[in-house]
Amino acid sequence: MKRQKDTAYGIKRLESKNARAAIIQKISSDFNLMPLVAEASYKQISSYFHQHADVQLMSGQICYEAVAAEEPAGKHIALAKKVSCRLTLNDTQADLEVLAEYGLAGLRRHRILRLTKEAYDQEALLSYEDLAVLLTTSPATVKRDIRALKQSGYFVMTRGAKHDMGPGLSHKTQILELYFKGYTFTEIEQKTNHSERAVWRYLRDFTQVATLHHQGFPNAQIRLITHLSDRLIREYLSLYQEYQHTDHMTQLLHPEPVDEKKGELS
Question: pTM of this prediction?
């Protein structure tokens, strides 16, 4: 029994000599913290490291810190939440094909579409300045490229576009209108540079707004429940009024009940 206790004590001593224990001891000493608080700090910092620094990359990819898509417009960039994104800077085969057919400007625009889509799929947004750094060009060039892409029918999801800075309908309303006009998810993805998952998120928010409106909730209460802006709620309700009798709207708001007897053996 005594030998077992000595062995267990020896193991504990050895465990206390690993890197984790050494870092916790340094945190406790450097910041004058109790060991328990130092250990909690270590765990939190470790989770930050795995989230932002320990990112697995494929060939041609980089890790880039971008502002989270959830952050509101006007918030100081230093205070905004960041997301570590895996971005494909070079997709050799696809990029060479674009370069051969459309030249350097075409390749740059092709990469803008890819980078902004990848960032948004990871719940982050790139600005003109981000794209300029990634593509080693100027924000003015990026702005011209995005203008050209929009004229060609593409929707480029940048931070400015997401927060709809400027006049006109929001990008969400424009994308939902394509859905109600009968476009497939594949067609919407090709036309707007949005993933199917993003379109479903917009449909979920729209369904909630339309359902609450149908139940008699005023716009002010809908805003409190959904956390959407007054402008977006007004646009969604206008969309609802315009397309409320279409098949897509009916299927979205009034899905057919599932027949539980179907498929049963008689």
Answer: 0.58
